Amino acid sequence: MPSNEGYINVVAVMQKFFDQAISGNWSYNPTHFENNEVPMSVMLQDMLTTYKLGWKTSYYQNTYDFKTDPSEIEEEPRVEGTPNGFEPELQVNGDLDEEHCESCTI
Predict the structure, then answer these.
(1) 26 inside domain
(2) In terms of pTM, does the model score above 0.70?
């Protein structure tokens, strides 16, 4: 989202119908701003707007930081089969042996 305006308005309307606080969050993507920097004036305006509209709690301010998880870049090879060679014994539409319980069958 290029701004938090719509989200702030929606949470403010919902807050009027709750007797306890709704924890609202702000999210910023620096790519929507000059030099990939979120101006402090934008963050302060959001904070003042939420106060004016009756938010009781602001919880998180999330900012996209361009960092990536290395596991997202290169997919690790997947091992076929089940962990540690464990193969669950399931009976499908069959008679139960004394060794099996109801929760072990489908």
Answers:
(1) yes
(2) no
